[in-house]
Design goal:
Elements (H helix, E strand, L loop, with lengths): L8 E5 L4 H12 L3 E6 L2 H15 L3 E5 L5 H15 L4 E4 L14 H29 L2 E5 L12 H20 L6 E6 L3 E2 L25 E2 H14 L3 E3 L2 H12 L1 H13 L8
Parallel strand pairs: 1-2, 1-4, 2-3, 4-5, 5-6, 6-9, 7-8
Helix pairs in contact: 1-6, 3-4, 4-5, 7-8
């Protein structure tokens, strides 16, 4: 599949770290033009320069807070101005949380929905004319938490469930337009998302609550996303554990409740015991 996306324009949100950073490299290796979006503009500029030097990719960095609608509109306008259109939008920007609902400030839930759900909606809305014109792809990087609620992640799970509903509706609306709609659901992935997850008061935890060494790498996730775009896949559930969780949640949801509880009771400093 090398070069399958050559000269296609790919917009990636949350591109400064984790899965977004890995996606930037994976799409660059396919010869794509890149529009890299995140709040950390200095890091994005360094990434764009690195991709240009390493892969010969054309890359532009755009400072963007996806929770801000105007930023999302400006991101799309920048992509169109520089590259003349958009072929792939990867809605990857996201934030997590780790706190029991009884303990948290409701502002945390607002933040989760603003970034994870509304960020996806805003970027998709403004990119739609270009994506329809190119018969391109819109991708949402979601989670198994979009299929199954997880303890200590009420806001995160709610935002991912909302994304799934949005993307599913969008897919049906566009069955005959040529737009490709894909939801990508990695398993637990080694990245900074748990260290930056918000606690009950909205502060970053600063450390992971799980064993990162046993998780998927961001690079593995990015490779699967790129292949999914090329193959125009509908949904990617990336691990055996994830596929089993989705299946068993349909068949035996009460049993899955207990298994999920047991899993999260084994976290470092568990919230459920």
């Amino acid at each position: 599949m090398s070069g399958a996306l050559r000269n296609k324009t790919v917009v990636i949100t949350g591109a400064s770290s984790g899965i977004g950073l890995a996606c930037a490299g994976a799409f660059a290796r396919q010869g794509a033009n890149l529009v890299l979006a995140a709040r950390r503009y200095v890091d994005l500029c360094a990434l764009a320069q690195s991709l240009e030097q390493t892969h010969g990719a054309r890359a532009v960095a755009v400072r963007c807070d996806v929770a801000n609608e105007a930023d999302c509109e400006a991101l799309v306008q920048q992509a169109v101005t520089v590259f003349g259109g958009i072929d792939v939008l990867v809605n990857n920007a996201g934030v997590s949380m780790r706190a029991l609902f009884a303990d948290l400030d409701l502002a945390i839930l607002h933040r989760l929905m603003d970034v994870n759900f509304w960020g996806t909606v805003y970027c998709t809305k403004y990119a739609m004319p270009e994506l329809l014109r190119s018969r391109g792809s819109v991708v949402a990087v979601s989670s198994i938490a979009g299929y199954r609620g997880l303890p200590g992640r009420t806001g995160y799970s709610a935002s991912k469930f909302a994304i799934h509903g949005f993307m599913e509706s969008l897919r049906v609306e566009n069955l005959k337009t040529g737009l490709h709609v894909m939801v990508a659901c990695p398993g637990f992935t080694a990245s900074s998302i748990r260290a930056t997850a918000l606690d009950a008061m909205g502060e970053a935890h600063g450390e992971t609550s799980m064993d990162e060494g046993r998780m998927m790498t961001a690079e593995e996730v990015a490779g699967r996303i790129v292949r999914g775009v090329i193959q125009r896949r509908r949904t990617l559930v990336m691990t055996r554990q994830g596929k089993l969780a989705v299946l068993m949640n349909k068949l035996l949801p009460a049993w899955v409740d207990k298994k999920v509880y047991q899993l999260f009771a084994r976290e470092k400093n568990p919230l459920v015991k």
